[in-house]
Design a protein that fits this description.
Elements lengths: L2 H15 L12 E5 L15 H10 L4 E3 L5 E3 L2 E6 L5 E6 L13 H12 L3 H8 L1 E8 L2 E6 L6 H5 L12 H4 L16 E3 L9 E6 L23 E5 L4 H9 L5 E2 L7 H6 L3 E3 L6 E7 L9 H10 L2 H8 L6 E2 L25 H10 L6 E7 L3 H15 L4 E7 L1 H7 L13 E5 L2 H4 L23 H9 L6 H18 L2 E7 L3 E3 L3 E2 L14 E2 L3
Parallel strand pairs: 1-10, 1-11, 15-16, 15-17
Antiparallel strand pairs: 2-3, 4-5, 5-7, 6-7, 8-9, 9-10, 11-19, 12-19, 13-17, 13-18, 14-18, 20-21
Helix pairs in contact: 1-7, 3-4, 9-11, 10-12, 15-16
């Protein structure tokens, strides 16, 4: 064994031992996974972080799932119907649904969970605003009365990413939706092992023996969620080389975001790669709209004109086949892709950007840029941004952090000099970003908006109108107007789109695709 391989094995061993786990099951019954970030929050309602949503899908179920074509399909629901006028929805739960503590899932649990979700999710907020009543008719039936039809109801209830509509016990769902739940009791296919959770090191789940999968074949988050391993371990290993060597040595089984520099080495050693996200991930430069200088639209427009997507993508990924320059806020390759409103000179107008920055009144204060150094390609993009900003007169203060800590810090509304921030780079799953309502960073609902807090009533009105458009042509018109508006107010700056595969051991079969999350059911692990 080489010295580097020994280092990888040692690092992996430390991650395994950290929680003081009891006797382990046979190795082929344990799935060891390296997610794209450390899990620091357990509540999939209070954050849109992908790792938290993936955690949510492990332990919670939803009324509806999404198949491979992103069509809503019943999951917890046995039957459903809607009145001819689209105002009354009735959902009947499957028999035998139970939470991890043995309590049955009831209509009251569903109602409480959906109300909590509806306080945070963009779709959910729209639906709650037009809700006449939402109540349990009996233990297994929920009736939802609306004041006007909502055309995206099943799309909202089946959304796999973002603020997921997770079903929790009513007592837990009563938690303030702006405070994270402390108990993690779901009805999903895995049970969270809190005693073995070591933040920064390891998360452990065990198979839920009482889970009753649907009868249909598994597809995305739809169909039967059959679990063929006894235990899943998420390991936080930040070094990409260590992760690659551990995967080759068989010490880990699945890597959500392998280091792109190591992909040729991995495939050359028999590791399998799979593009599970067909819409890829759009990059997002998020500015803080509530503090100078980005409270002035001219400073945001300066950044928009400045950012050269090709420079970012070349610094992030050596293989151009993994990337795409994209100026559509609603994702290139999606049905919602549009070129409406794209201004000329994007990424090639430094003089105009410099003039706009001066007009904004920027006073030369250092811009606090959060730099998630545990993600190599986001770290590279951050350094490119700082360099481009300096070229037109910005002063920058690049502050090293990790991705999970950045996700927590960006919720701080204090001025940057008091622990807040000016800029943070992140990425979204392409499926969520392609949805005009589900594109959370696109929202401009002021203090209710995603951190960065854009505020523009006319822009938000377009988002709010989209689900009520009576025809496809009217939806397209609103979509074009919305993108034109986005280029006007600049809620964020896109910096390209990329398509990273997951990497997994050849011992695994049944790996499913679903944009934006890790899906662990349906996976079998052979003995060798």
């Amino acid at each position: 064994m080489t010295h580097l391989a020994r280092l990888a094995t040692i690092a992996f061993g430390l991650a395994i031992v950290a929680g003081g786990a009891a006797a382990q099951p046979d190795s082929h019954r344990v799935l060891r996974v390296v997610p794209n970030a450390d899990l620091q929050t357990l509540d999939p309602i209070v954050t849109t972080a992908g790792v938290v949503t993936s955690h949510g899908h492990m332990i919670y179920d939803q009324l509806f799932g999404r198949d491979g074509a992103q069509r809503p399909q019943p999951q917890m629901v046995e039957a459903h119907d809607v009145s001819p006028d689209g105002l009354v929805w009735r959902f009947t739960l499957r028999e035998g649904l139970a939470f991890h503590d043995g309590a049955p899932v009831t209509g009251e649990d569903v109602v409480a969970s959906l109300r909590r979700w509806g306080a945070r999710d963009p779709h959910g907020r729209q639906i709650i605003q037009i809700t006449e009543s939402l109540a349990a008719a009996n233990a297994r039936t929920i009736v939802w009365h609306l004041r006007r039809p909502y055309g995206l109801m099943l799309d909202a209830l089946s959304k796999p990413a973002g603020n997921m509509p997770a079903i929790m016990p009513a007592g837990i769902a009563a938690t303030d939706p702006f405070k994270a739940v402390q108990e993690t009791v779901g009805s999903g296919p895995f049970i969270f092992e809190r005693a073995e959770w070591v933040p920064g090191s390891r998360v452990v789940y065990r198979r839920n023996p009482a889970y009753r999968p649907r009868g249909e074949p598994a597809e995305g988050t739809a169909g039967g969620k059959h679990v063929f391993v006894d235990r899943v371990e998420w390991l936080n290993i930040a070094n990409a080389q260590t992760v690659a060597l551990a995967l080759i040595q068989g010490e880990v089984d699945y890597v959500e975001t392998p280091g792109v520099d190591f992909l040729p080495m991995l495939t050359g050693r028999g590791v399998r790669t799979l593009r599970t996200n067909t819409l890829g991930a759009p990059g997002i430069i998020r500015m803080n709209h509530i503090h100078p200088p980005f409270d002035d639209v001219r400073a945001r427009q300066a950044l928009l004109l400045l950012v050269n997507q090709r420079e970012f993508l070349q610094a992030m990924f050596p293989d151009e086949s993994l990337t795409q320059v994209c100026h559509s806020f609603f994702v290139c390759g999606s049905p919602q892709e549009t070129n409406a409103g794209v201004p000329p000179g994007l990424g090639a107008s430094p003089d105009r950007a410099r003039a706009l920055l001066r007009e904004s009144g920027y006073d030369g204060r250092p811009m606090v840029i959060m730099d998630p150094t545990d993600n190599p390609f986001m770290h590279a993009a951050t350094l490119v941004l700082a360099q481009q900003m300096q070229a037109i007169g910005f002063r920058t203060d690049v502050q090293a952090t990790d991705f999970a800590t950045m996700a927590t810090r960006r919720a701080i509304r204090k001025p940057p000099q008091e622990g807040g921030w000016d800029i943070g780079l992140t990425f979204w799953n392409g499926l969520g970003a392609s949805d005009p309502v589900g594109n959370v960073p696109m929202q401009a609902s002021c203090e209710k908006a995603w951190p960065g807090w854009p505020c523009d009533a006319a822009h938000q009105a377009l988002i709010d109108a989209y689900p009520y458009a009576p025809t496809a042509g009217e939806r397209r018109r609103i979509l074009d107007e919305l993108q034109t508006s986005a280029y006007r107010i600049v809620p964020y700056v896109p910096f390209g789109q990329w398509f990273l595969p997951v990497a997994h051991s050849p011992r695994l079969t049944g790996v499913l695709s679903m944009p934006g999350i890790i899906v662990h059911w349906n996976i079998r692990k052979s003995l060798r």
